[in-house]
Amino acid sequence: MIPNFKAHPWHGISAGQNAPEVVQVYVEIVPSDTIKYEVDKESGYLKIDRPQKFSNIIPALYGFIPRTYCDEGVKKLAVESGSEDVSSGDHDPLDILVLSSHNIHAGNFLMDAIPIGGFKMIDKGEADDKIVAVMVGDQSYGHFRDISELPAAEINRLQHYFLTYKNLPTETSKCRIDLVYGADHAREVVVASQKDYAARFGG
Question: Which top class of enzyme applies to this chain (predicted)?
Answer without folding.
Answer: hydrolase
